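Homework help board

Subject: predicted structure for assignment chain

Our instructor gave us this sequence and asked us to write out the predicted structure in token form, then describe one feature. I got the tokens but I'm not sure how to describe them. Can anyone check?
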Amino acid sequence: MLTKEDSNKKAPFKKSFSKGRKKVKPEFEQKVIDIARVTRVVKGGKRFRFRTAVVIGDRKGRVGVGVSSGPDMRSSTEKSYADAKKNLITLGFTGNTIPYRVDQKLGSAKILLKPAAKGNGIVAGGAVRTVISLSGINDISGKMLGAKSRLNNARATIEALKQFSIKKNREIILKNSEKVEKEKKQEAKKTTEKVEVKK
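My token output:
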């Protein structure tokens, strides 16, 4: 039998076995925006699978959307995370907001993104808010004008943000440099033609 004195005594200190182990912070934050149960009718009955849509981002200008299905929630989420990693975009602008207004349509989803003043915060809802917050933009105004599908709205937001991506900026710079080179060549041709005519 335990006496009153025994019950008042403190329990002996237990050693933790996690000594030396540090929690490794993941490279990207992830948020599940949509879960759907998909059924397939087969000879024996129905087969159930789960389709998960995931948004990942590092809040420093990199963001992506992935979707995949699996036999259970965990496997479908892991596959969606891997898919989102393949479809990452990197934003190529500095500051808290986007440089200009963007209207984007993808399928039945329509997205409107507008720059906002510093301290305004993210004025958007649903999947648009999730994508923008994980991309690292702090001040923006967004609106969903089309269908309410979370996956389509997330993809439309990614397409809108692609306009500010480093890849897109490089393409624009290359096009502009090509135009300048063509103009220079045309001017050089005109000057040589004028010189020949004078001779």
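Reply (TA_rk): Your tokens look well-formed. For the description, you could write something like this. DSSP finds five helices and eight strands in the chain. That's the kind of observation they're looking for.
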